[in-house]
């Protein structure tokens, strides 16, 4: 008999018994179904990511060149904006209560 994941038949039987004890007989079909669905979704996700080489890339639509437009006028010169003064902090620093202040060091 071939080994599955390097496990022999004895180890597989032990694992199946432990799973049966943990999940119970009534939940095993639901568990197997959800594992099968997850495996199917995983395979579909992998297949969706593979690029398909059989389909040719879409042909570029032949569009006529745009009609000649008159030259655009240069934008009007705008004066440079004055530098804004640095912003003051929104709130002043918080001072500890008077009873918790430390005396200045000498």
Q: Can you put this structure into words, describing what you see?
A:
The structure is a single chain. The chain is mainly alpha-helical. It has a domain at 25-51. Helix content is 35%, strand content 0%. It is built from two helices and no strands. The chain has helices spanning 9-23, 28-49. The longest helix is centred in the middle third of the chain and has 22 residues, at 28-49. It is flat, with a radius of gyration of 37 Å. The termini are far apart.
| End-to-end distance | 88 Å
Largest sheet, in brief, is:
none
Low-confidence regions: none
Shape: flat
Q: Give helix % range.
A: 25-40%
Kindly state the mean pLDDT as a whole number? 74
Beta strand %: under 5%
Q: Could you tell me the number of beta strands?
A: 0
Oligomeric state of the chains?
A: single chain
> Helices and strands: which structural class?
mainly alpha
């Amino acid at each position: 008999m071939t080994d599955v994941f390097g496990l022999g038949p004895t180890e597989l039987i032990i694992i199946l018994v432990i799973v049966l004890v943990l999940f119970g007989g009534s939940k095993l079909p639901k568990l197997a179904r959800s594992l099968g669905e997850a495996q199917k979704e995983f395979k579909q996700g992998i297949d969706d990511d593979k690029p398909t080489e059989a389909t040719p890339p879409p042909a570029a639509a032949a569009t006529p060149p745009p009609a000649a437009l008159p030259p655009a006028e240069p934008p009007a010169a705008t004066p440079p904006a004055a530098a804004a003064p640095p912003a003051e902090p929104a709130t002043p620093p918080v001072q500890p209560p008077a009873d918790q202040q430390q005396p200045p060091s000498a």
